[in-house]
Design a protein that fits this description.
globular; 541 residues; four-stranded antiparallel beta sheet; single chain; 19 helices
């Protein structure tokens, strides 16, 4: 549980980013589902998640740079990193606006981080976001941000930062519920603004980071209302808008950016330009994507250019499959080689460094396939993998995410992969194989701790079955035997052992003999995992 913080210091900023990422991960699909404005392309939740993921990664990098010393980063370093990370990683209309909201807050909090400064920061954020949007529209995330800032501003002087954050959250919730009455397209669809709902989640995370507990009233989306009897003004139908979304980072001076704003405003709509100090994130919807990029070239140096064709998203069109691939996250180089030999594209999860969604998207692209099965092999990667899959789908790739929670489940799924059958049949078979595989691993306790199996001491060998500590032992061989006995007591036909780099082959021999002598008709297969966190991974099918 987060610690209570009277001020938004560096640790609180780090906690806020982590909690916001978790919250958006949980709500990503729900937010995507209500995305009808400015374009009904069903990706607002994904874009917000990717934007905050980039912000959180930037803050983590600042903390990593201080690991060798005894100090922690300053608040200024943390909030500036958060804002910069959001800026360079912003996706979509709402993600770009969120980046500007965080930048506006950072500009104030870098100077002072008390309760009064938080009120000022929220007001600055709302104002700067409106300034970044060429034609602000009420009933959107801009309205929600403005009302959050106003609610925070009404908090009496002397109140703590948690109180200010709670007031902002409550103001945002109230404003969000009112958005269907402010924007006709939302009223007809019977939904609240998707970007605004994402902001409520981010502010809820801020409350939890400062107070140590989640908001007293968690947001619950109202039930879809009947379509409002309101005529849609000309141009209000998001389906009739421009064909392309163009986003790029731009290195340019202020004057050049002002000229760029005017040029892009004449080319399309949903124009948002955020940033400053020579680095900008440009977002616009246009029919002539080339002209939008050329305008950026005239203004400065555009890079990380992303162009999305809305027509395919609106019709949910997908190209006919020509090739299928499997992308697998592996905990060690040994399994990476094994999976690569089986034809999979691998992503290495280094100890303490889980892959970001961008790495997974890059791996999906590297597979050069129109149909991809994604195996994350870690329960903690479920939101990251889901965001990556959604991003790849916007690029025309058909992606099926099988929620494997361990490498041995991924091995089981890959073993039954058959690219010659239909995609759906293949995914069903792989999902069934993964789901039928119970998983375990051995770990070394770092400190004394309470567990499901009792109290462990530093240096004890822990046997985790399906993610929970089930056995506490003094050495690897004995603990492994006890774990196997518990797992095989429920039945099984195949045991998979994945040995870490420093584990002797004799252990595998001993465990194979243990299974052979105690469990008839149960086969054992052994793999070398190479450099991985756990000395031993176990699967039972």
């Amino acid at each position: 549980m987060p610690q209570t913080a009277d001020d938004l210091d560096a640790v609180a900023v780090r906690t806020w980013c982590s909690l916001a990422l978790d919250a958006l991960g949980r709500e990503r699909e729900a937010i995507d589902a209500i995305n009808v404005y400015p374009v009904a392309d069903g990706d607002t939740g994904t874009n917000l998640y990717l934007t905050v993921e980039s912000a959180a990664a930037a803050v983590e990098a600042v903390f990593a740079a201080h690991e060798t010393g005894t100090s922690v980063p300053s608040t200024a370093d943390a909030v500036r990193a958060m804002a910069h990370g959001a800026l360079i990683g912003a996706r979509g209309n709402s993600g770009t606006i969120l980046a500007q909201l965080l930048r506006g807050m950072a500009g104030v909090l870098a100077e002072e981080a008390g309760a009064g400064s938080l009120r000022t920061a929220l007001a600055r954020a709302a104002a700067s976001a409106r300034e970044a949007v060429a034609h602000p529209v009420e009933g959107t995330v801009l309205t929600v941000a403005t009302e959050a800032a106003r609610a925070a501003g009404r908090v009496p002087d002397g109140s703590g930062a948690p109180t200010v954050a709670q007031a902002a959250y409550e103001g945002a919730r109230t404003a969000l519920d009112a958005t269907p009455g402010q924007l006709a397209v939302l009223g007809r669809a019977g939904v609240v603004d998707a970007g605004g709902r994402g902001l409520v989640a981010v502010l809820g995370a801020l409350v939890e980071a400062l107070s140590g507990r989640a908001p007293e009233r968690a947001y619950e989306a109202p039930a879809p209302a009947a379509a409002a009897a309101v005529d849609c003004p000309a141009g209000d139908d998001p389906q009739d808008g421009p064909a392309f979304e163009v986003i790029y980072l731009l290195e340019a001076g202020d004057e050049a950016v002002e000229r760029l704003r005017a040029r892009l405003d004449g080319l399309g709509d949903s124009l948002v330009v955020v940033g400053g100090d020579g680095l900008w994130n440009v977002h616009v919807h246009v029919d002539d994507a080339g002209a939008a990029v050329e305008a950026g070239v005239e203004a400065g140096r555009p890079y990380r250019i992303r162009i999305t064709h809305f027509a395919a998203d609106r019709m949910h069109a997908r190209p006919e499959p020509a090739q299928r691939a499997v992308v697998v996250v592996v905990p060690g180089d040994g399994l990476g080689g094994l999976c690569a030999e089986a034809g999979a594209t691998t992503v290495l999860a280094r100890p303490g460094e889980p892959p970001a969604s961008g790495e997974l998207v890059d791996a999906i692209r590297r597979a050069h396939a129109r149909e991809v099965v994604l195996l994350p092999n870690d329960g903690d990667l479920r939101h990251t993998a889901a965001a990556a899959a959604e991003q790849a789908r916007t690029e025309g790739i058909r992606v099926a995410l099988i929620p494997t929670r361990a490498a041995v489940q991924g091995i089981a799924a890959l073993a039954v992969h058959e690219p010659d059958r239909s995609f759906d049949e293949d995914v069903v078979a792989m999902t069934a194989a993964a789901g039928a595989t119970r998983y375990a691993e051995l770990a070394v306790a770092e400190r004394q701790s309470w567990t499901m199996a009792g109290i462990c001491q530093a240096g004890d060998i822990l046997g985790l079955i399906d993610g929970d500590v089930a056995v506490i032992g003094e050495d690897v061989p004995e603990t492994a035997r006890k774990v196997l006995d518990r797992m095989l007591a429920a039945g099984g036909e195949l045991v998979t052992l994945v040995l870490g780099e420093d584990v002797p082959a004799a252990l595998a021999d001993a465990l194979e003999e243990h299974v052979r002598e105690g469990y008839l008709a149960v086969d054992t297969v052994v793999y070398r995992g190479g450099h991985q966190c756990a000395p031993l991974l176990i699967g039972v099918e």
